[in-house]
Amino acid sequence: MAELAHNIVLSTPDPDPLPAEVWSVYSQYPYYHKISGPLAENIHDTIALQDFMEYLKKKHSLDSHHSNNISLEGLQLFLRHLSPSHQATMVKLLHGWAPTNAFLHKQGRNVSPLCSRCCTAQEDSSHFFSCSAQDAIDARLKLVYSFLDSMITQHTPIHILAVFEYKLCGVLCLPYNRRYLPTTKLDY
């Protein structure tokens, strides 16, 4: 019974402590229930998840469709496998807290909000991934093809590489070099 309760996140509306349990944690949100399973995740999911989702919706102007399709488990799994410094960088990027010139200028820590490469637009998170200065384009191209080449070493099929190349070049405002052309035509 204890193992079954451990695997079930929320218990029945009338929870009772099990004989093998030394202690139990109860919550009244969203209704009265006993929290079981991995304690930290369940407390977060039970108590803070709704507030967190509302924060994300407001922060990133998400509609219900997009907020309902966020895979928090997938995001947590992805972040868990990164080093702490990479985790911090990814979270900053996701929330728009990247130390761009515009963000630092807003905080009073930088003289100008302009991009130091093109000097024509504010360097915010979106400009960082689309700056038209040639050295910025070259840096993004180098990173994209380094990533795609590393996928080759993992035996990724050429069709998947072709789709990644096409999509990444579009999103990052890069010239599409068609380096990974499959032998058959795909619609993507």
Unreliable spans are: none
Order of adjacent strands in the largest pleated sheet = 1-2
Overall 3D shape: extended
So how many helices?
9
The major sheet is characterized as: 2 strands, antiparallel
Overall pLDDT score: 81
Q: Quick gist of this model?
A:
The protein has 188 residues and is mainly α.
What does this molecule look like?
Helices cover 52% and strands 3% of the residues. With 188 residues, the chain is mainly alpha-helical. Among the domains are: 70 residues, no CATH class; 56 residues. A two-stranded antiparallel sheet has the order 1-2. The model has no long low-confidence stretch (mean pLDDT 81).
Give descriptors for this structure.
mainly alpha; single chain; 188 residues
Topology record:
Blueprint: H1 2-7, E1 25-27, E2 33-35, H2 39-59, H3 64-68, H4 72-80, H5 84-95, H6 101-106, H7 125-128, H8 134-153, H9 158-171
Antiparallel strand pairs: 1-2
